[in-house]
Amino acid sequence: METTYPLMALQWFDPNTELRILVGIHGHQNVQTMINLMEISRGNGFTSLSAYVTDMIEMNDNNTAMFIPDDPEDDNHRGDDEHPSPLPETDANTTMADESVVSMRDEITNMILSYVEQSGGGIKVHRLLAISTFFNMHHDIYNLSKAVQASLIILPYYKNQRKDGKMGNTPHGFRYVNRKVFRHAPRSVGVLVDRGLGKTIERGSSASVALQVAVLFIGGKYDREALAYASQITQHPGVNLTAVRFLQDEEKELSKAKKKTAYAKAMDEKELNLDNEYFANFYEKQVALRKVGYSEKHVESGTEMVSILKSLESQHSFFIVGRGRRGGRVTSFLESGVSDSEEAPDLGPIGEILADSDFSTTASVLVIQQHFREELEKDEFKIIPM
């Protein structure tokens, strides 16, 4: 029987067990970036990471196949799972009609195999394939993540960086796919906005990596999940992590609390207690032992929040942030001084700021959601015309 979802989230992940992540790619442009993300996600190399790299291909007249791997709980396949080859071809029985897709997948597999051979151990990479219409592709990602029991799904942002550093408006359906995965997948989900992460880390030289990372913490379950992922990557010898906690002026918080119902106040207090408890544990294990840096920022307005974020941009090449949700604690920090552009609402309020081309042309961003399906609001997503 599959473990219930909350125990699959990174917040409850046992660091002494194998971490499984499902990594989606659209093509060659995502490969080196996702390889680097796998590299830092494997931590110190003593713990085990299994990455399931999945080609996400739109179905057309030539592409008619989709592969879903065998259930890892099936006893008939335990032997293969316990003794995998360096790069198992788990979709070997899938027949592809489009030779260009076959060629692309072979090239990507060779790139990943080269990384695995140089990685020094501690990582297993599997290749998967999902071919579907954009309307249904989120179901394939969901089924794959369930079959391999992944704790985290990581997908590329639907925009690619142009030569001028700006994020290009690519008119395709992956934006719709990402939103639907956020809504339906019973795993934590991260969307990666890539601005050169694929160039930041030299493959096969983990000891020389000097990746400056900031994890932003305001509060809520999504930020706690972002902090959990940050705890994983800080084990990597080449990751320099700083935890930045944003705190609001007490008088302003009290003023807002007076306008809330007794139930809303109780829920806010419960959430704040969870935040304080989780962050205190992170501080004790990471900051107090000088494994990561720590910075505390007091914020009074959205304008000040944006100003602080921009000041961090010059010091960090990678940001990790919880997706947040409009109407939650994140919104209270941004209620004044920030235009509601709705440019990237699927990334949440802070993720939208960080993903904007005006924020940075060099800092990549990973926006993470800890998924609780029953708590999603019905109107949280708007349907995008196809």
Write a brief structural summary.
InterPro entries: CHX17_2nd, CHX17_C, CPA2_transporter. By secondary structure, the chain is α/β, with parallel strands linked by helices.
Report on this structure.
This protein is α/β, with parallel strands linked by helices and 386 residues long. It has a single domain (10-65, 100-369), classed as Rossmann fold. Helices cover 36% and strands 19% of the residues. It contains 12 helices and 10 strands. The chain has helices at residues 28-41, 78-82, 99-118, 137-148, 174-184, 197-200, 221-233, 250-257, 262-287, 302-313, 329-334, 348-355, and strands at 19-25, 49-58, 123-132, 152-156, 188-193, 211-217, 239-248, 293-299, 318-322, 364-369. A 10-stranded mixed β-sheet has the order 3-2-1-4-5-10-9-6-7-8, with helices on both faces. Strand 6 (211-217), helix 7 and strand 7 form a beta-alpha-beta unit. Helix 1 (28-41) runs parallel beside helix 3, helix 4 (137-148) packs across helix 5 and helix 7 packs parallel to helix 9. The longest helix has 26 residues, at 262-287. The chain is globular and about 60 Å long. This is UspA domain-containing protein. InterPro entries: CHX17_2nd, CHX17_C, CPA2_transporter. One of its GO terms (biological process) is inorganic cation transmembrane transport. Residues 67-95 are annotated as: Disordered. Residues 211-371 form the Cation/H(+) antiporter C-terminal domain.
